[in-house]
């Protein structure tokens, strides 16, 4: 699961679906968005983590490269 934690999840509420949808931006070229969902935010996060772990495992199993994780560099300035 540790490799899966490097990836982003976008979790918007869907009025039409009455659920939180989980979108995995770094995996958009491999799976259709949204990837999974949940009736609560917490359940959507859990489902998203499970989906990412499955995607990482499938990439390893089929000897395919992993998607590149997004990264953000934060600069904190002290005064």
Write up this protein.
- The protein is α+β, with helices and mostly antiparallel strands and 79 residues long.
- The protein has one domain.
- The protein has 1 helix and 3 strands; from the N terminus they run βββα.
- The chain is flat.
Give a quick summary of the entry.
This protein has 79 residues and is an alpha+beta fold. The protein has one helix at 41-61; strands at residues 13-14, 19-22, 36-38. It has a three-stranded antiparallel beta sheet with strand order 1-2-3, with helices on one face.
Attribute tags:
79 residues; alpha+beta; three-stranded antiparallel sheet; 1 helix; 27% helix; 11% strand; flat
Strand-residue proportion: 5-15%
The shape, in one word, is flat
* First-residue to last-residue Cα separation: 38 Å
**Main β-sheet description:** 3 strands, antiparallel
Instruction: Please estimate the helix content.
Output: 25-40%
Q: What's the structural domain tally?
A: 1
Number of helical segments with 4 or more residues: 1
Which strand order does the major sheet show?
Answer: 1-2-3
Mean pLDDT: 89
Low-confidence stretches: none
Structural class call reads: alpha+beta
What's the order of the H and E elements?
A: EEEH
What is the oligomer described by this structure? single chain
> How many whole angstroms does the radius of gyration measure?
14 Å
What's the β-strand tally? 3
């Amino acid at each position: 699961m540790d490799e899966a934690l490097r990836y982003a999840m976008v979790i918007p509420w869907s009025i039409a679906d009455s659920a939180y949808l989980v979108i995995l931006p770094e995996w958009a070229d491999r799976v259709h968005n949204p990837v999974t969902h949940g009736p609560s935010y917490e359940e959507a996060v859990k489902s998203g983590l499970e989906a990412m772990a499955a995607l990482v495992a499938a990439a390893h199993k089929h000897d395919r490269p992993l998607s590149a994780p997004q990264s953000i560099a934060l600069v904190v300035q002290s005064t």
